[in-house]
Amino acid sequence: MAELSTAAPDLTPRAAQILQSIVRTYIDTGQPVASGAVSRTGSKGLSAASIRNVMALLEDEGYLSQPHTSAGRLPTEKAFRLFVATLNAGRLLADEIERLRRDLASAGGLADRVERASRILMEMTQEVGIAAAIPDSSQTLDQVELLDLGERRVLMILVTRDKVVRDRVVVLNEQLAQHELTSIRNYINTHFSGWALTQIRTELSLRLEQATAAYDALLRRLNLLLREGLLDLASEAEIHAEGVFNLAGLDLHLTREKLRELFRTLEEKKRILQLLDRFLEQPEGQLGVQVGLGDIHPSMKQLSLIGIRITLPTGLSARFAVLGPVRMNYQRGMSAVLHVSHALRSIPG
Q1: Which side of the chain, N or C, has fewer Cβ within a 10 Å radius?
Q2: Is the pLDDT reported for residue 214 higher than 60?
Q3: Is the dihedral of CA 248, 250, 252, 254 positive or negative?
Q4: How confident is the model at residue 213 (pLDDT cuts 50, 70, 90)?
């Protein structure tokens, strides 16, 4: 672990020691930290007056704030960023990675593994666990399956060569019988299995423009499914967030409406992906920590994100993260994210 004074050259060793004690105490208690508490947690030998003087200097430098004149101090985002810079996730435990690997592998397909990963991150940290798998544009088709559910409803299933399975139920403007759906399925699987999805879209557009009479009926029906996103299913990111309601028990100083806004934000997969993309810009495989997320939404100002970007054995890009209050246990969150990401990366495609 780095010295806090090394991470902040403007602080004396004494000031850095006191600041670290304040941050750790605040993470444990969630309450403003008084000079007496600092003295009891690692600054023995210093008088209360000396500690108060240092705390006043730290406040002047923007590391502490004082909510009330008679209250103790609170560490600011600046203090937390400095504190986080001194941390490491600790040693990766081979036994723990193997345990997680078995648990995740037993989940089955990619979608189930992503969901399981988010739940494991939540359980390991008691914060919000987030996991996402993001397809790239070069995915190739393995096969499609089309099932008539009656009342013009069709279950569309698309499987790509990276073993990602996507499905969607759509309601068509007209009824297609199962034998018609089977013909469409056979046509796609026979002619396009192994093709890149982008190439299939281009080729089908040409065939639809130049269709002969023999193919008119089949291609017209196929076009109904294309309009419903048959070939777009695989481009959808698989995103799961578990434990969002853990935030409800925190004192985030939000009004009821702001808290509802926060929950709505975390229910939208697009917003979660924006959050991950914006704050996990470090190189792949490198852990990132963002203290304070107010830039993406005002209701998230008092939240922090710990996350990582990796590439799975299937070739998919993945993100794993823990979202929690600014005063979360960062070391525990960092360890959880690293262990889960290493476990998933060790599962063969």
Answers
A1: N
A2: no
A3: positive
A4: low
* Alpha-carbon gap, residue 343 to 97, rounded angstroms: 5
**pTM for this prediction:** 0.77
CA–CA gap between residue 25 and residue 47 (Å, rounded): 18
Tokens read off for 32: 């403003």
CA distance 280 to 252: 23
